[in-house]
Amino acid sequence: MRLTRCGHELQEIMLQRVFSQIASVKKDMIILEKSEFSTLLAENEKVKVELLQLKVQLADVMNKVRFDNILDMNSEKSSMKEMKSEHEKRLMESRTEIMEMNAEQNCHLTRSNMKIDTEVAGLKTMLEAHKLDTIKYLAGKKSVIHVSMH
């Protein structure tokens, strides 16, 4: 029985060694698992921080683009207002120039009409004078003919 007892004790020792090794492996696995989990958590936090930084950068870029667009639109709007104002100014200058030219033409036309009227009146006066001279001449000739016939 001694042999069985020794065998039994030996089995028991071997079994305890196996359990001890299993416990050690289990402990190592738990440590490894915790270590991997910690690494994953750290990487996850790192990715979260990078993502947050990217979001901030994206927001900054979007704000800059928006601000630049607003500046461009305001600049373009200002340029358009200046162009409109300049165009309206040139239009008013052209209108004024046309009105001045029209007034000047009307003045020349009035002067020309007055000259024509004066010339026509002078010609009418001269025509009447010639008519009168012709009548006098004819009347004088008739008297001379009448006197010489008698």
Automatic annotation (TrEMBL):
Pfam families in the record: CCDC90-like (PF07798)
GO cellular component: mitochondrial inner membrane
Residues forming coiled coils: 44-104
Subcellular location: Membrane; Mitochondrion
GO biological process per UniProt: calcium import into the mitochondrion; positive regulation of mitochondrial calcium ion concentration
InterPro entries listed in its UniProt record: CCDC90-like
Keywords from the UniProt entry: Coiled coil, Membrane, Mitochondrion, Transmembrane, Transmembrane helix
Protein family according to the UniProt entry: Belongs to the CCDC90 family.
PANTHER family: MITOCHONDRIAL CALCIUM UNIPORTER REGULATOR 1 (PTHR14360:SF11), PROTEIN FMP32, MITOCHONDRIAL (PTHR14360)
Name recorded for this polypeptide: Uncharacterized protein
